Amino acid sequence: MPASYRSPKTIVRKSSIEGKGLFAKQPIQKGEVVAIKGGHILDEETFRNVQGKIEESYIQIGDKFYIGAIKRSEVRRNKLFINHSCEPNLGIRGQITFAALRGIQAGEELTYDWAMENFGAWTMACHCGTKRCRQVITGRDWRDPKLQQRYRGYFSAYLQEKIGQGRG
């Protein structure tokens, strides 16, 4: 199983946002790569078979494709532990690389807005607690022109293509 990469400047620990989170244990510079998602490429059928049976450890990389673990025993090496925030300090470069949107101080939780990569008909209550908290996040948030402007250049390549084609 290809493992995900987490910078040696990071540590996984209890999060006030949700469960466990990824934290900076040293300062991280703007643009620095913090994590790279590894895993199996899951087609839609495989994804449906895995979803809900193991701890969530995947990200969407296409309309019908995901990358992540397919067995419970793979989750620990695969999961990035990057929680959602409506005021993130990480963005996505390409499909699977997470980089710092700004300088990050030691002790900060590392977060990204799931609108940057997640597409679909789902909703989730948000508990990020930031001033910009949307209260509810959805698989359609990437279509919001304000978010498109705020995160320009930091959406997954797959969603950036949809935005560029005016499908947002």
Question: Can you tell me about this structure?
Answer:
This protein has 168 residues and is α+β, with helices and mostly antiparallel strands. It has a single domain, classed as SET domain (Beta-clip-like, Beta Complex), CATH 2.170.270.10. Helices cover 15% and strands 29% of the residues. The strands form four sheets. A four-stranded antiparallel sheet has the order 1-4-10-9, with no helix packed on it. The protein has a four-stranded mixed sheet with strand order 2-3-11-8, with no helix packed on it. A three-stranded antiparallel sheet has the order 5-7-6. A hairpin with a 5-residue loop joins strand 2 and strand 3 (20-24). It is globular. The termini are far apart. The relative contact order is 0.19.
Q: Helices and strands in order, then pairings?
A:
Blueprint: E1 5-6, E2 10-14, E3 20-24, E4 33-36, E5 40-43, H1 44-50, E6 58-62, E7 65-68, H2 75-78, E8 83-84, E9 90-93, E10 97-100, E11 109-112, E12 123-125, E13 136-138, H3 145-150, H4 157-164
Parallel strand pairs: 8-11
Antiparallel strand pairs: 1-4, 2-3, 3-11, 4-10, 5-7, 6-7, 9-10, 12-13
